[in-house]
Amino acid sequence: MDFISLLFYFVIVIPSAIIHEYAHGWMANQLGDPTARYAGRLTVDPRAHIDRWGTILMPLGLFLLTGGRFMFAYAKPVPYNPYNLRNQKWGPVWVGLAGPAANFLLAVCFALVYRLFPLSASANFFAIIVVVNISLMIFNLLPIPPLDGSKLLYALLPNSAYRIRSFLERYGFWILLFFIFFLFDLLHPLIYGIISWLLG
User: Fold this and answer.
1) Range of the structural domain that residue 121 is part of
2) In b/e form, how buried is each residue of 127-153, taking b as 16+ CB within 10 angstroms?
3) pLDDT of residue 59
4) Cα–Cα distances in Å, from 102 out to 27, 62, 66?
5) In this structure, are residues 19 and 102 in contact, taking their beta carbons and an 8 Å threshold?
6) Nearest 5°: CA angle at 191, between 113 and 2?
7) Which residues are catalytic?
8) Of 16, 23, 73, which Cα lies nearest the Cα of 46?
9) Within its chain, how far is the Cα of 100 from the centroid?
10) How far apart are CA 159 and CA 15, in angstroms?
11) Which of 1, 45, 149, 199 lies at a CB distance of 3.0 to 4.6 Å from 141, suitable for a disulfide?
């Protein structure tokens, strides 16, 4: 990936990450927690969501460290209070899954646009949007804290597995870094399989 592609990636990934976070706040509000709304985060205004490290510096660093093979970004996490949710067990799961679901819907929409206008000058741009959003969706579904997939894992774990949850919460960030630098290639067939299916 050259620096022109990197520029395109930032133009796409920042709005995608913002919509991802907006979806978390929207779902929490729907399920009874107005924290995000009160905090002014139920908006797609970038100023409310951009995180200097997660949205700008980290993706740039990953681009340089991995030679463009892997990039990931996140917007400032939307605050929510799980104790306000009407369903204490599954409410956090729906809030967590709302972000990846939003990325999937974006990917589907732009895949359809790509199929309608495959020869247009913007076709490659549409394809990059699909790639970015599918990558964000799959990566966020990994059951590693602080990613969204961990919310589903916690809901499925029995109460007796509290030590597993405690271990993941304590070391999740380091497990995630290990995965990014040593195991991420395992996801490539899945990511590009879904992308090919959407575009095809």
Assistant:
1) 3-199
2) bbbbbbbbbbbbbbbbbbbebbbbbbb
3) 79
4) 11, 24, 27
5) yes
6) 75
7) 21
8) 16
9) 5
10) 38
11) 149
Question: Does residue 146 have a cis bond before it (omega within 30 degrees)?
Answer: yes
Residue linked to tokens 């602080």: 146
Contacts 24+ apart (CB under 8 A), 112-120: 114/199, 115/199
In the DSSP assignment, the letter for residue 144 is: S
Domains held by the chain: number: 1
Closest CA to 73 of 86, 84, 60: 60
Work out the end-to-end distance of the chain between its first and last CA atoms, rounded to an integer number of angstroms.
Answer: 23
Amino acid, single-letter form, for residue 150: S
Among 184, 190, 152, residue whose Cα is nearest residue 66: 184
Residues 154-182: b if buried by 16+ CB within 10 A, e if exposed? beeeeeeeeeeeeebeeebeebbeebeee
| pLDDT tens for the 200 residues of the chain, in order | 566 667 777 788 889 999 999 999 999 999 999 999 999 999 999 889 988 888 888 878 877 777 766 666 778 889 999 999 999 999 999 999 999 999 999 999 999 999 888 888 788 888 889 988 998 898 899 999 989 999 999 999 998 888 999 999 999 989 988 887 777 777 778 878 888 888 77
